[in-house]
Amino acid sequence: MVSTRRLSELDRRAGHIVRHTVAGRPEALRVARIGSAAFAPTFRLAVAAAIVGPATRRDGVRALLSAGTAAGLALIARDQIGRPRPGERRDGGFPSRHAAAGAAIASAASRGPRGAGTALWCGMAFGSACRVATGEHEVGDVLAGAALGLLVAAALDATLPAGR
Asked: I need a surface site. Which of 16, 52, 86, 160 has the fewest CB within 10 A?
């Protein structure tokens, strides 16, 4: 059985490898910084666009509810766990609020127009990788955040009516 200490060491090592690899390529680091900074605003725009569209409003509201809940739960967990981030920030990083909200939104979008969910899942994966590459999170932080987002979205789907 693998201990939590060993898992944490492996996680830190994986994040270090990602950051070291990206740091050696200035163009990749530039893209990672842009991707990290654009993650939340892009997903906010996607939710707003879904809410404005009559055909996607219900899914947009589900995305908003599940993303807000997932991000709030991630914040509470992060503050209780207190696992330090790899970079300069002093607040905790486990689980990632960005990944939690992104996974919840992508999950809700998967119920909507064909291709929207796939595009947002790709964006969530890219944005989360960028957060690791820029030292905002470790790999485990974004994986735990994504799992939390999926759980919240599934719970919301199970409790809200499915009608159109």
From this structure: 52
